[in-house]
Amino acid sequence: MIERRTMDEMLHMDVCGGEARIMLCETTHLVQEARNIHEATPVCAAAMGRIMTGTLMLGVMMKGERESVTVTFAGNGPMGKVVAVAEQGNVRVCADEAQLQMPAREDGKLDVGGAIGHEGRLTVVKDLGLKEPYVGQCPLVSGEVAMDFAQYFTVSEQQPSLVSLGVLTQGATILKAGGLLIQPLPGCSEETLSQLELRSPMFAEISREMMAAPKEELAEDWFRGMDLRLLSRTPLAYHCTCSRERMERALLAIGRKDLEEIIADDQGAELGCHFCRKTYFFTTDELRSLLASAQ
Ligand SMILES: [Zn+2]
């Protein structure tokens, strides 16, 4: 029996002696943190939560310490762009409109696809610490996020994948958030494939399932008789990497002429981080010495 834990974490597992890999995670606490930072409405919290959870799957697959993955959902919906960045188990998110109100769908569910938009583009940029990042793109399938990630894996990475992502909200509270990724690996038998497909309705509503039982118990239940093995666990957290030094670099990046204008205005400069909404203030004197140091 797999040890039960209630923290945010990713379980790496496989079935049938490695014929398929499985990633199952809980992201409740980090989605709650994103909701609080962005004061997001339930529909936007759900959209950001699903996107962060999918991005974390990509993030924890990357091996290098300094590698990162940036996922951008640019749909034609009123929420605008949503960007999530993961470095292994750390993730952060921002959205053009996180406080958007949307009527629920006819079935009573949050209209994530309506907020993001049913058409648009999903872009994945993997920074592997090399000169050129890897960039993968595909059109959005539905804007409901899970299907879009599945399409990305299948088309851009040629890796057929089953993806389930869910965020269950009650007002400003995130009751449960999590996700499941199943990827058949080379040499996967037809028998294993059909077993996995047969069981897919069991994990369609993953956040509801996770309300009822711990994720470890769910995994044992879903993949019963398939020789489920736990390979490792990765803790997950909301984490922003902004700093005063990064903001200084951003100021220098606007160019000498613009920076001189800000100095001439003598009001200082305030920069905000889109991911954690922290603000950094620079006085005119600080801006002057920053400019001087860059020469
Ligand atoms: Zn920040």
Q: Using the alpha-carbon principal axes, give the shape.
A: elongated
Largest sheet: 6 strands, mixed
Indicate the CATH topology of the largest domain: Hsp33 domain
Low-pLDDT stretches: none
CATH class of the largest domain: Alpha Beta
Question: What is the straight-line distance between the termini?
Answer: 62 Å
- Helical stretch count? 10
Helix- and strand-based class?
A: alpha+beta
Q: Which kinds of small molecule does this entry bind, naming each only once?
A: zinc ion
Please tell me how large the radius of gyration is: 21 Å
CATH architecture of the largest domain: 3-Layer(bab) Sandwich
Query: In CATH, what is the homologous superfamily of the largest domain?
Result: Hsp33 domain
Query: Order of strands across the biggest sheet?
Result: 7-6-3-4-5-11
Outline the secondary-structure elements.
Layout lengths: L8 E7 L4 E7 L1 H11 L3 H20 L6 E8 L5 E7 L2 E6 L16 H5 L3 E8 L6 E6 L6 H11 L5 E9 L2 E12 L5 H10 L6 H7 L2 H8 L6 E7 L1 E2 L5 H10 L2 H10 L3 E4 L6 E4 L1 H10 L2
Parallel strand pairs: 5-11
Antiparallel strand pairs: 1-2, 1-10, 2-9, 3-4, 3-6, 4-5, 6-7, 8-9, 12-13
Bound molecules: zinc ion.
Describe what you observe in this structure:
This protein is α+β, with helices and mostly antiparallel strands and 295 residues long. It has two domains: 9-238, Hsp33 domain, CATH 3.55.30.10; 244-293, HSP33 redox switch-like (CBS domain Like, Alpha-Beta Complex), CATH 3.90.1280. It is built from ten helices and 13 strands. It has helices at 28-38, 42-61, 112-116, 146-156, 190-199, 206-212, 215-222, 244-253, 256-265, 284-293, and strands spanning 9-15, 20-26, 68-75, 81-87, 90-95, 120-127, 134-139, 162-170, 173-184, 229-235, 237-238, 269-272, 279-282. The strands form three sheets. The protein has a six-stranded mixed β-sheet with strand order 7-6-3-4-5-11, covered by helices on one side. The protein has a five-stranded antiparallel β-sheet with strand order 8-9-2-1-10, sandwiched between helices. β3 (68-75) and β4 (81-87) form a beta hairpin. α1 (28-38) packs across α2 and α9 (256-265) packs antiparallel against α10. The protein is elongated, with a radius of gyration of 21 Å. It starts with 8 loop residues before the first strand and ends with a helix. Zinc ion (ZN) binds at residues 240, 242, 273, 275-276, 278.
